[in-house]
UniProtKB/TrEMBL annotation:
Keywords: Carotenoid biosynthesis, Oxidoreductase, Signal. This is 4,4'-diaponeurosporene oxygenase. Residues 11-485 form the Amine oxidase domain. Pathway: Carotenoid biosynthesis; staphyloxanthin biosynthesis; staphyloxanthin from farnesyl diphosphate: step 3/5. PANTHER family: 4,4'-DIAPONEUROSPORENE OXYGENASE, PHYTOENE DESATURASE. Transmembrane segments: none annotated. Residues 1-21 form the signal peptide. The keyword Oxidoreductase applies. Pfam families: Amino_oxidase (PF01593).
Length: 489
């Protein structure tokens, strides 16, 4: 039995906690906030319930596997419901495309856009291959030893996931209609990146949404984190909420103990950092003791951030699907402004999640909608930090009004969560949602690995490390770390 400290109760930390405790280790989790789940968080605004963080859930099997591997039936903890016709895409010319994981329905929609089924089938075959290569060779690797980097299978897999083709180019090779390309290009934002710079590898998200499906958890997606917390406690994990770790003490290539903000110190055999690698690791370990974390890490480009409005309305609005996207006129210019100019786009694409469509318990007191409205935001710079939140919010409402979604006349209450709030609350790297962007091949394929080279007993799990940012990948990072520790006798 090992004693293990996990710093952070985000999804990566929770998954690792469950699996390490199930293997018989003594696990303690330290968390700054008062709740489990980190960015997967509940809000109550104007009498309605909201999910912050993951609104679109894919790959439910990854979350379920944490319960299964711990010897429990996942269905006793959390039930995933598939949303078949999942996302209504609304273009500036007024046309709409309802994306679905039902092939027949997709073909019907594509026919309205004069797209032949053979183009869709070619696209699905290609994204299925991207997914299969990535999941077989990348997701479950921890990249913790040189052997893992130099495997022939990895090299072959790398060559087959189109690392040097850009996502937008890839999508344009299947579809000529720019609206469809724009709809697919949005998948780059799932990793906080631009489709004009991101490798086509991440087009595999299309496979997840069109083949595996999009899911929601009744009672709100944060039920997933709460369920992992419950399972961890059943297995004896001790949680210390409202407790920030301020320092890791080290000696002879090992982390020896952690020190909390109240100066309480405790020793462990192993340590896992689930807080943002890019910002929390350098805070916890003195510079001379972490040679692998050099200054050049800090000049890497951050992912995009998000400007979020949580709006509770007294009536149902025109945002009548679980997920809907109001696209901008020029996607290319929007991403140029976001990443090259680091400005809020003049004409932003607006995403709205209205989970009350499938879960009226979220609005049982109001009878209206619970609108999670998200606009992609640039990572923080000195200039854009001064954003006037109220002005930006009114701009978003005005654009939505022009597109037929009236919110202000029915508004009970709203709340804005800005990039500065995300940075402050989650120590997010320049407010970015997932650490470093995936724009260069190096940044996309050489994310911080699950184990540091600096110490024999320090591991990383979370969205800013390997394998990546979306919530299933974050859970996979926790599984990978648990495997590493459990397999290292
Ligand atoms: C607006 C938004 C929308 C998103 N949408 C989606 C989506 O639709 N689908 C999807 O799959 N994903 C989405 N994500 C991403 C997803 O929420 C995250 O990738 C995932 O929840 C991150 O989990 P994590 O384990 O990396 O850690 P986090 O959630 O960042 O949690 C880390 C925890 O560590 C704690 N911590 C840090 N330092 C310390 C310390 N020193 N001491 C103690 N505790 C510490 C923090 O308080 C925090 O609770 C979204 C994220 C955001 C912000």
């Amino acid at each position: 039995m090992k004693t293990i400290a996990i710093i952070g109760a985000g999804l990566g930390g929770l998954a690792a906690a469950v699996l390490l405790a199930a293997a018989g280790n003594k696990v303690d989790v330290y968390e700054t906030h008062s709740y489990p789940g980190g960015k997967m968080k509940r809000y109550h605004v104007g009498g309605a319930r909201f999910d912050f963080g993951p609104n679109t859930i894919t790959m439910p099997q990854v979350f379920q596997s944490v319960f299964e591997r711990s010897g429990a039936d996942p269905n006793d903890y959390v039930q995933f419901e598939q949303i078949v016709d999942h996302t209504n895409n609304i273009f500036p010319d007024g046309s709409q495309f309802l994306a679905s994981s039902n092939r027949a329905k997709m073909l019907q929609e594509l026919e309205r856009f004069n797209i032949h089924s053979s183009d869709y089938d070619r696209y699905i075959t290609a994204v299925t291959q991207l997914y299969n290569h990535s999941s077989n060779q990348f997701f479950t690797r921890s990249f913790s030893s040189l052997k893992e980097y130099t495997s022939l299978r990895l090299a072959l897999a790398f060559a087959s996931v189109k690392p040097f083709t850009k996502m937008s180019q890839f999508h344009s090779s299947f579809f000529k209609d720019e609206r469809i390309v724009q709809m697919l290009n949005r998948y780059a934002t799932y990793i906080g990146s631009s489709p004009y710079k991101t490798p086509a590898t991440f087009s595999m998200i299309g496979y997840l949404e069109f083949v595996q499906g999009v899911y929601y958890v009744k009672g709100g997606n944060p039920t997933i984190a709460e369920a992992m917390h419950r399972r961890a406690k059943e297995l004896g994990v001790q949680f210390y909420f409202n407790k920030t770790v301020k320092k890791l003490k080290t000696a002879n290539n090992e982390v020896t103990s952690l020190v909390c903000a109240n100066n309480q110190e405790k020793s462990y055999d192993q340590f896992i950092l689930n807080g943002d690698y890019t910002t929390v690791y350098p805070k916890l370990v003195e510079k001379q003791n972490r040679p692998s974390f050099t200054l050049d890490q800090l000049v890497k480009e951050p992912t995009s951030s998000a400007f979020v409005i949580l709006a509770a309305t007294s009536q149902k609005t025109a945002a009548s699907f679980h997920h809907q996207v109001y696209f901008s006129q020029s996607y290319e210019y929007e991403f140029y402004q976001l990443f090259d100019e680091k400005k809020y786009p003049e004409d932003p694409t607006i995403y709205i999640c209205n989970s009350s469509v499938n879960d009226d318990s979220a609005v049982s007191h109001t009878g209206g909608d619970n609108l999670f409205i998200l606009v992609n935001a640039p990572s923080l710079t000195n200039e854009n930090r001064t954003l006037d939140k109220e002005q930006m919010k009114e701009k978003v409402y005005s654009i939505l009004e022009q597109r037929g979604v009236l919110i202000r006349p029915y508004l009970i209450e709203d709340k804005v969560v800005s990039p500065k709030d995300i940075e402050a609350e989650f120590q997010a790297y320049f407010g970015g949602l997932y650490g470093f962007s995936s724009h260069t091949t190096m940044q996309a394929f050489n994310r911080p690995s699950s184990k540091t080279k600096d110490f024999q007993n320090l591991y990383f799990a979370g969205g800013s490390t390997h394998p990546g940012g979306g919530s299933p990948m974050v859970v996979q990072s926790g599984i990978n770390v648990a495997n590493l520790i459990n397999n290292h006798k």
